[in-house]
Amino acid sequence: MFNEIKPQDMDLNPFKAIGSEWMLITAGSGENLNTMTASWGGAGVIWNKNVVTCYIRPQRYTREFVDAQEYFSICFLPEQYRRQLAYLGRVSGREEDKISKAGLTVCSDFEAPCFEEANTVFICKKLYVGQIKPEGILYPEIDTANYPQKDYHIVYIGEIIKAMVK
Asked: Which domain holds residue 79?
C-alpha cells in the first residue's frame, strides 16, 4: 500500500536512485502499457513545479506509450529486483510480454500504471518533450561516446502530481 507524500519531504537521493539503482519509466492504460529501465534522469524544480526529467531513445518501444499518454510513472524498486530491472532494460515489449515475464504486478489505480513492488513512485504529467540536438553537445567526445548511431534521446519533463512511498 502506497502513502502519498510531498516530493520535497522525500529522502530519495536522485543520484543514487536513478544512476545506480535505476528506475522504471512506464506509460499506457489497461492492458496496453510498457515499461523500460533507465539510469539517466533527474529530479528538481522548473517552472515552479516539482519535476522529473527522463530520457528515452527514439527507437525504444516505451517512447510510443509515453508519447501517447498525458501521464507516465517513475518507479524505484528495492535492490532485490535488480535482475528484473536489468531484464526490463534489455528486452523489448514489442517482442514479448516482458512485464509478466519479470514477475511484476501492475497497479492501475492512478493516472499512470506503476508497480506494486516499487518502494517509491512518482506519477507525472508531461510538461515538455524535446530532443537532444547534436549541435547543443559542447564536447565531441560526449557525442561520440553516447551517440555512435546518432539516436539522440527524447527529453521528457514531467510534473510530479503524486509522490508515493511504502
From this structure: 3-165
Give, in order, the Cα–Cα distances in Å from 165 to each of 15, 22, 55, 84, 139: 18, 16, 23, 20, 38
Nearest to 159 by CA among 48, 55, 17, 38: 48
What is the number of domains present in the chain?
1
Domain harbouring 148, CATH code: 2.30.110.10
Q: What is the pLDDT of residues 37-57, one digit of tens each?
A: 999 999 999 999 999 999 999
Q: In Å, what is the CA distance from 113 to each residue of 4, 20, 24, 35?
A: 16, 23, 11, 9
Q: Which residues of the chain have pLDDT under 50?
A: none
